[in-house]
Specification:
By secondary structure, the chain is an alpha+beta fold. The chain has 2 domains: 8-83, Beta-grasp domain (Ubiquitin-like (UB roll), Roll), CATH 3.10.20.30; 92-162, DNA polymerase, domain 1 (Orthogonal Bundle). It contains 5 helices and 5 strands, in the order E-E-H-E-E-E-H-H-H-H. A 5-stranded mixed sheet has the order 2-1-5-3-4, with helices on both faces. A hairpin with a 2-residue loop joins strand 3 (55-58) and strand 4 (61-64). Helix 2 (92-99) crosses helix 5.
Length: 163
Amino acid sequence: MPETLPTAAVRVTVNGKPCERQVEPRQLLVEFIREELRLTGTHIGCDTSFCGACTVLLDGAPVKSCTLLAVQADGAELTTVEALEQDGQVHPLQQAFSEQHGLQCGYCTPGMFMSSLALLAEHPEPSPQDIRKALSGNLCRCTGYQNIIKSVQTAATLLRQEG
């Protein structure tokens, strides 16, 4: 019979909503998000922190959720890709990626969105070099990145127009 591990309380705010769960101390943050919270937009890609598909925002900073334990997020604010669409309205990032063909298979897209969101929060008018640096931890095997860069630039323009 498998040994039962003690659990730990994790209290986080996820996409603006408070949440508390009991988890095994060894549970990864990505597993917590997908399995405990049923927010499956955060993807598991490589399990080695290489691809960035699991990127979420932890207190506003992009992190690879496959590299953190859920207990390390206790008390934090988590933002997942599900936070982008609000009241049936797509976020400017989603709109821009669609218009500029910044996605193909879509597997990397949630991580690209979250890294881009963090960049645009700090740099409303990023240069292509800023975008490349911000997305350097996110791997896409489909697009060749040029349309992703255009997408982030378009999203920046849309966000400034909204603001």
